Amino acid sequence: MNEMTNKIIGTPLDRVDGPAKVTGQATYTADYRPTGKTAEGFIVEAAAAPGKIRKIDTQAAEASDGVIAVLTHHNAPKQNPYGTPEEAGRFTQSHAMLESDHVRHVGDPVALVIAETLEQARHAAKLVRVEVETSEGTFDQFAADVEIAKPDSLDGADEVDTSTGDFEKEFAASDVTVEASYFTGAQHSAAMEPHATVAEWDGDELTVHMAIQIVAPGLKAFANTLGIEADKVRILSPFVGGGFGSKLGVHNDAILAALGAKVTGRPVRVVQTRRNVFSNAPHRSKHRQDLKIGADASGKLKAISHDSLAAMARNYPFAEAPASPTRASYFAPAIKTTHRVVEADIPRVDSMRAPGEAIGTLTFETAIDEIAEQCGIDPVEFRLQNDADRDPNSGAPLADRRLSECIREGAKKFGWDGRVTPGRRREGNKLIGRGMASAIRPNFLVPAEAEVVLSANGQLRVRLDMTDIGTGTYTILTQVAAETLAIPVDQITVELGDSHFPASSGSGGSFGAASCGSAVFDACGKLSKLLQQRLSGKGIAANAISVEGDRVRAGGNDYALADLVDDGALTVKGAVDPSEFDHGEEEYSYGALFSEVEVDVDSGEIRVRRLLGAFDAGRILNEKTARSQLMGGMIFGIGGALLEESTMDTRYGSFMNRDFAEYHIAVNRDVPELEVHMLEGFSEKSNPLGSKGIGELGICGTGPAIANAIYEATGCRVRKFPIHMEDLLQHLPQG
Amino acid sequence: MKPFDYSRLDSPDALSPLGAGKFLAGGTNLIDLMKHEIETPDALVDVTRAGMKEISQQPDGSIRIGSQITNTDLAANSDVRQNYPVLSEALLWGATQQLRNKATTGGNFLQRTRCQYFYDTARACNKRDPGSGCDAMKGLNRFHAILGASSSCIAVHPSDMAVAMAALDAEVLTRKVDGVERRIPASELHRLPGDAPERDHVLENGELIMAVDLPASPPRLQSYRKIRDRSSYAFAVVSAAVALDLDDGRMSNVRIALGGVAHKPWRASRAETALEGQMPSREMFLKAMKEEMSEAQGHGHNDFKIDLLPRVVAGVLRDLTAPERNGDRT
């Protein structure tokens, strides 16, 4: 094999799309300029909900400068009813917009103003007069008199509720118990790029440039909404400026743009404003999580129960699984978990940044810290002694269980030297505390296909409908292709985000790299074999080949590619079939997070001073992009513990902090130097590449490591997140 | 954004009535508000090319700051850093580098509240839409006023700079349309809401801020402390600008201005009086702040500010009067 390429997987190759991004050459959706003159759409949001539109007056808007059309439920093209067909999933059902006088939630689009310029559309949108006759809505799942229901299914989990062992008996027999309710706030993904679409029709064919994470189901969503065939739709999403779950599916801007383009006969661009995103893109529900944990005097866990209560947007079936880590982290004879929801008249609730684990580890790992303390056992030691040797919930064997290795490695690198009495470590006017927590996240492999095209000149094109949402997909797929075919990186072009390419996993659930990487691995392996066969056919022995320039090297000689490819190019398809890796063992990525915080004695202000993670994500595909993924996750973890919360005025069902001045994402100054340690590994049971999911792993465990450090700093156990200064104020010593 | 006329002011001598117009300086707040049509001026008069870009020492030793000096330039000015560090600190605690590069001294005073109900045109706000009500009163009011509020408005003024200016006894120099100039103490530029919360300040229509004067011989010990959830690009939960001298160990010339607690930078004159001439001690600091806070009123989510603020002010006073900081002066 080629020396240059035979070990390129795992190396910190610079992003192949980096130069395009930093020079503005990467075309994000809103940058796309169609050939026809684009009209600009602006969303008119409902000010009150739920209810019915009694009157909508568009006259002034229509008469305003530059306005081409104002779409409302009166004149919008006919669509299939919202949420149909029912048996289809939420990513493929009809997402009909402006379909009736019904207003679902505050911010629900009631009109789309289309004008020559964005400024004209935006101003005219203010001139649309809407009267909504409201009915009583549910905005707060913690209010009295709400209807609590068991969801039909749970995101990322097989079962909504689980129960092993006899919880009541084991809990009653426990020497030490913790019983508490924890609250996590609503959050928004807050991707840098707002949701955006440019739609254009050519006859009955629709082309949609849009920011989306998973392309293929999007085609069906358009088809099911607009009543057209999926093969009449093309989605293009070559660059996405962050998704974090909020762009998994098709959102309001996309359908509105398609409707607007239909009506005006022109390409229509709809870019959500930042304020739009807080009601026209999905969010994470606030949750109450009730935890009960029992242990014996030696610190062996005996019983765990975890009951979650979330809001579900009415007619949009999604329920998050915060008890997911509770089912998998530690062994206990009895583990019981439940998930309940209250249907609410709020914007869509959907996956966001490690759904389940992000807020599940936040609460569960805080509770574990509490019981470890009550048992008088160091939190590191407590976790190590309760590690599981089989899946705590199903009893199934565990593939590559390396939680304890992560904890030991993290403790060593961090210099963990045990707990001090809370509130006793002080430097000047700062209280100092340290804490740690485990990270766990299920590892998924989903079907993906890829196509590779090798030209006679030696250029290899890798094509699939996968997206790169900033994670580094272009780069790692380049590496997989380079190593598998033994071809230099600069001869490879990865092409993504086009629904005309083979259907892939898309980006989500941390499964993109493994699934798509495996499909590319398969395609390139097949291509290599095909080249070998063709060489053999010419009587050339070729056990190992490599490509360099327009020549194939084999057995010490090289041969012209032109003689081996048909019609100037060789096209091979590859795929990954997850059922081949269905071995009955439970798979997770693992980690351990350690943090040090300071709390100001005057104000209770909290700052993270150190944050360290040790992770096992199997084989690392690119040392640099993997590190970036983990760092990004850890930064989100800081946000989850201390900053990010979408606050709703529950009198109206309206989110109030709808911009980046008020919705606080961590800024540079909130983030200490992050220490990331990745265990070497190869998870052969996961996929052909030996990798495991990494994108969301850093979020898991970070929040509770910070919360547990705050406890050590102050002696105050806060059970609501994000933790703010006022939660600590009454517990601080005199300054 | 509502369509508007645009013109440039060449010189303060050319002032004319603004009517429903607005002055435009850095635009970092006004343009945002215009996009949301919270502000709907029918004309913008751009004052960024009308001079007022000097920082100069006056014969009496005071410093005159042109209103078009950017926040970045003001914070970096060597006279300001040396003699009025509380002002430089307050500026640097505010916004972000990019915003400070655009924002001006005059404009910073006139930025509007960040009350989320003021920003949301679907909700009731007496400041935005007089007579419509105040949804913050019984809504999400963690960031709202605890001092000097009224039944019609509990918004706070968001500026850091203006708090330091109030503590320094700065004076705002203005010129009216008729050419008459006046000097307004920085702590009296903004109003309490009363029953007219739509009026943030006392300036008349068309009255232009020309400059700000910082008096000579400010107190030697100065500090700005801003308390916030996020460590940059976040408005103050509360803030305190403190300036004082130590005279044989006793506090003198005590000036305390508070941010994030009222419709205006709040000059804590009761606390100042209580501290004047006293030996520094935590008991003294807290006693003074207790007097200052005697009429403080929370609205639910912001109740904690009543406990927080005295701690913060006491902390600033502790640090400023600490013997290790002041060496031979104590």
Automatic annotation (TrEMBL), chain A:
SUPFAM superfamilies per record: CO dehydrogenase molybdoprotein N-domain-like, Molybdenum cofactor-binding domain
MF terms in GO: iron ion binding; oxidoreductase activity
Oxidoreductase among keywords: yes
Protein name in the entry: Xanthine dehydrogenase family protein molybdopterin-binding subunit
UniProt keyword annotations, A-Z: Molybdenum, Oxidoreductase
Span of domain Aldehyde oxidase/xanthine dehydrogenase a/b hammerhead: 23-136
PANTHER family per the UniProt record, alphabetical: ALDEHYDE OXIDASE 1-RELATED (PTHR11908:SF132), XANTHINE DEHYDROGENASE (PTHR11908)
Keyword field contains Oxidoreductase: yes
InterPro entries found in the cross-reference section: Ald_Oxase/Xan_DH_a/b, Ald_Oxase/Xan_DH_a/b_sf, Ald_Oxase/xanthine_DH-like, AldOxase/xan_DH_MoCoBD1, AldOxase/xan_DH_MoCoBD2, AldOxase/xan_DH_Mopterin-bd_sf
Source taxonomy: Bacteria, Pseudomonadati, Pseudomonadota, Alphaproteobacteria, Hyphomicrobiales
Tree of life domain: Bacteria
Chain ranges passing through the membrane: none
Organism of provenance: Roseibium limicola
From TrEMBL, chain B:
A Pfam family assignment: FAD_binding_5
Annotated GO MF terms: FAD binding; oxidoreductase activity
Start and end residues of each FAD-binding PCMH-type domain: 1-219
SUPFAM superfamilies on file: CO dehydrogenase flavoprotein C-terminal domain-like, FAD-binding/transporter-associated domain-like
SMART domains in the record: CO_deh_flav_C
The entry's keywords: FAD, Flavoprotein
Protein name (database record): Xanthine dehydrogenase family protein subunit M
Species name: Roseibium limicola
Lineage: Bacteria, Pseudomonadati, Pseudomonadota, Alphaproteobacteria, Hyphomicrobiales
